[in-house]
Amino acid sequence: MRIIESRPAQGFRGRVGFLGFLRLILVLIMTTLTSPAAFAIERFATIPLAGVRGRIDHLAADPAGHRVIVAALGNNTVEILDTRNKERRTLSGLGEPQGVLYLIAPDRLFIANGAANRVDIVDLTSLAEERRITGMNDADNIRYDEATRTVWVGYGRGALRMLDAATGESVGEVMLPGHPESFQLEHDGKRAFVNVPTVNKVVVIDRFKRQVIGQWETARASANYPMALDERGHRLFVGTRSPPLLLVYDTEAGKVVARLPIGKDTDDVFMTRSTNACTLSAARATWTCFGRTTLTAMSRSNRSLRRRERAPGCLFRNSKGCTWRRPPSPIRPLEYWSIRFVDPPIGPVRTI
């Protein structure tokens, strides 16, 4: 792994102070459920990533340190953006970094390398590599389990591996019927929910027993990639691409209770507690927002910022918004944008 020294991030445009940082990585969603007001998307700030080419995958953030962490999969780098000091540092020598996980104590970054078949643990202060865990083919999504202080990594043809967050030692593994995509862990409960699109199922795991306890069908849909969990509301949100739907599961019954049409090629989905909203990103910069309590579509828009955009990769923090990316252009460098919804209108619902 090679470190490119800190340098000014030329061309930061827009306000990126403390509040600006929050806005930069968040989209403000004004959820006026009773008012059919206008829907709008606007740019807040832009951060060019000069020299970064190819696909961007997952993101992480350090709000206290004013840092956004970008898995530049196609560039084989991780980009660390300091929005307060307007600096950018680069970790190179990676192999298709996909998942990135930041732990505030002790300022540590976990990087899942899909092509290099490993997980790197990096001190984010010095950017020194602390440890490398090999033998993890197609390492992908990565999550932190506060209850057990373990880092969970989806990899291979079907497995979740648990790593001790302090040492990086492997402390267990759960086998799955196929490669895991997005997965979510209960905070107060013991379960994990895992999208396994190769078998069109959501696999349920007992995290403490480390075994599969259920498999839920995807209700005549396939390509289930993104997922979000509303633990308190007993709802699991799963985005599918064929057909493009948001499946809403009752996590107590393990049944689909709603099938809601969304944009094509959905990439990310988030549940925000403060707004009781579930928000998805899809192709052509299309965003859809659903209310949790009534499962009413609060907004649906076919508008796009650019006609040929692919599904944006996003990061929500503190229930207020996200950043999204656009693919590289031969004319302009890769950029990150911040967008927001303004008083989204009520829309129709399709339930089953």
Structural features:
352 residues, mainly beta, Methylamine Dehydrogenase, Chain H, five-stranded antiparallel beta sheet, four-stranded antiparallel beta sheet, 1 helix, 29 strands, globular, disordered C terminus
**CATH fold name, please?**
Methylamine Dehydrogenase, Chain H
Computed over alpha carbons, the radius of gyration is: 19 Å
Portion in helices: under 10%
- Which descriptor suits the 3D outline? globular
* Total count of domains: 1
Major sheet: arrangement of strands: 1-6-5-4-3
Intertermini distance: 50 Å
Strand content range: over 45%
Tell me the CATH superfamily: YVTN repeat-like/Quinoprotein amine dehydrogenase
Average pLDDT: 78
Describe this structure as you would to a colleague:
The protein is mainly beta. It has a single domain, classed as Methylamine Dehydrogenase, Chain H (7 Propeller). The protein is about 0% helix and about 45% strand. The chain is built from one helix and 29 strands. The chain has one helix spanning about 20-25, and strands spanning about 1-10, 45-50, 60, 65-70, 75-80, 85-90, 95-105, 110-115, 120-125, 130-135, 140-145, 150-155, 160-165, 170-175, 185, 190-195, 200-205, 210-215, 220-230, 235-240, 245-250, 255-260, 270, 275-280, 285-290, 295-300, 315, 320-325, 335-340. The protein has a five-stranded antiparallel β-sheet with strand order 1-6-5-4-3, with no helix packed on it. Strands 2-29-28-27 form a four-stranded antiparallel β-sheet, with helices on one face. Strand 3 and strand 4 (about 65-70) form a beta hairpin. The longest helix is centred in the first third of the chain and has 8 residues, at about 20-25. The chain is globular. The chain starts with a strand and ends in a 14-residue tail after the last strand. Residues about 25-40, about 290-310, about 320 and about 340-350 have low confidence and may be disordered.
